[in-house]
Write the structure tokens for this entry.
Amino acid sequence: MSKIKQLLLLSFMILPVFLLSGCWDVEGLENRELYTAIAIDGAEDAALEDRLRVTVQIPLIKNILPPAAGAGESQGPKFYTISVNAKSVGEALNMINDQVSGVLDNGHVKLVLLQEDYARGGVAQELDFVTRIPQLPKHANLLITRQTGEYILNQTSPKDLLPSLDIYQQLQLKNSGRSLAVAAWEFVKKLDEPGQDPYIPVLEYNEDNKTFELNGLAAFRHDKLAGILDTNQTRFISMLDHRRNDSGLEIPLPGGREAVFRVVKASSRIIPQNRQGSNFLITLKVHASISEFNFARPKLTKKEMERLQEQAARFVKEECQQVLSSIQALHADVLLLGLSCHAKYGKDFSYVDWREKYGRADIDLEVDFTIDRGEAYF
Amino acid sequence: MTFPEKTSLRPSMYLVLIFTAIIGYDMLSNPLVSVKALGNSGYFAPLAAAVPVIAIIIAMFALQKRFPGKSGVQCASLIIGHVPAVIINLLLIIFWRVFAALSARDIMTLVSTQMLLKTPLWFFSTIGYLGIMYLAYHGIESISRFVAFTFIPATIIIIIVFCAAFPYIDIRQLLPVLDFSITDLIKGAFSMSYLYFPLILLFLITPYTKKLPSARRFTMAALALSVLVFLIQNICAIGIFGTSGLNRYTWPTLEFAHVINIRYIALEQIGVVLLTVWLVLTFGAAAFNYWGTALALSQLFPKISYKMAVLILALPTGLVLLLPQNIIDTRFYLLIFERWGVLAFFGHPLILWLIAVIRRQGKES
């Protein structure tokens, strides 16, 4: 090949490098409006055609970055919010994009908040955008808010963190302390599958302490909010649903005494007893470490230990049965008993009228409680 | 070089080339087809589809044994006569080129949705195809060197990404394991057989080695490795999203890679890593396919040189690539090819081999 041909070929190969880098039309960070949380509330006037009130929280990047050398920490606001009324979330995002000076960036959403009253009417349509925007992180957490999402996103965090990041951090670090983190993809997936019902954490702003509090779980019947489980019930849901549980467990003992456990690990197995899905057996194995006895008994004998394990197992069983009754009364199959039945019996099991059948199903529970260890010898 | 008398392939290159050709196309969306056929047991579909492929591979190598140094196109002329061979092979080449171009278009749409959001699709498709043509123009040696370079890291990364998705699987979504009838299984195998269509390229590369038994073993290994990748991929997609849930996504494999959340490490966006690595394999597969059709065309019409064939195919390929309006159009046309391609791609070598055996043609007669 002649040198001229080689040079021509080289120039032809170099040219696309400038065009194909993917950055030719990229918006710089300073031109992007990254929003970290989106709240979906019902419009105050339900008769309005624009039935949704959508709020986004946009951090002010220059005020949240750590102070650079020579520059003091910024004292300005850490974020601002924009709220609009619209018929759909997509329309709302377009309207917000028109109102901000930069380009609205979907790639950093950490939280999607759904207002409690609004969620009772169904949220499947409102969450369609979660899977249609490829840049939206699959791990954005969904939450039900007791107050309006707009109100919550306008509150400040006592830690001087961006509020959405504060809530996200709580969800990630204190899984099942008072609530359980649920990613958007997980929720949406359950809406698609027959007979599967999702749950998501409940968020509340405590006006006295000025803190964001995760308080329990919202159980759904398909896409409609069916009821709220309190923080105590959340701990037992986490045991029944294989979730991590760092919140510990307090077992009341006869005579007003109490044993406190930490690092509670549980594994459960749902065993359907028939193809109609009318009878189930759940076996639950709990492993825990002793944290404290509130009575002067530093060392336990083997027999006392066995009795303690039995008492703990009985307590866990009673609590779990109460939780199971609550979710059955809501006709919300959040533990996916229907899926377990399908897994065992395949096409012989039918999802027709499943939620009704599930509400009437007999669920037996076997609990095995093992005390693993304690820093002090038992 | 593109002529077996001037170049040769090591048997291990059959593993690399065939694996790249199979995995390079449609790796990210095949669970959509498998669950349609077999529901929650969809992971059996790629496995079942691979069984008849073993017979095809054996038939192709048996033909090479009978007609040493001859490609499938040349064998056809010797077995069924020049005129019928020209007609059948020409139809096959057209069918094959359109299928490969539509598959490439599917992948270009993916790039447009996930990576180059604002760049016009026609622009990067054209540039990409010029690159593929450039690689194909320099023959099988350039292609094999390229795929040999990318094969090991790409395969390792793909398998690691799939394995990283295991913790997100709900095993109940994969059960019961054998929840299908034999008819369902046959349907599943039939609908997933398109994954192995690129094996038709074997027809053109068998003359490039004299160590046929060894090359056959490596080809079988490529098939086994591909089946393993498809199997893990289907288990992850169904186990994570469920049979109905994964229908929400255009590319479920990419979506389950997005689900992987490894905190505090640099590679939080593991989906992008998978996509980047897989696109390298796709580039190699597309070049290999292009080389195959161009070589077949030049062997069918000896007056057309190989390099001329590369240029002749450029315009029709470009047109087919840019013709569909969107992913729905692309998948609609692809479905037609996926359904009828079994006859063309798998029936052709089997029938040729059978005729050769019955008529006792070739070396063993």
User: Anything to note?
Assistant: The two ends of chain B are 32 Å apart (CA to CA). Chain B has one domain: 11-358. Chain B has a mean pLDDT of 90. Residues 237 and 256 of chain B are 6 Å apart (CA to CA).
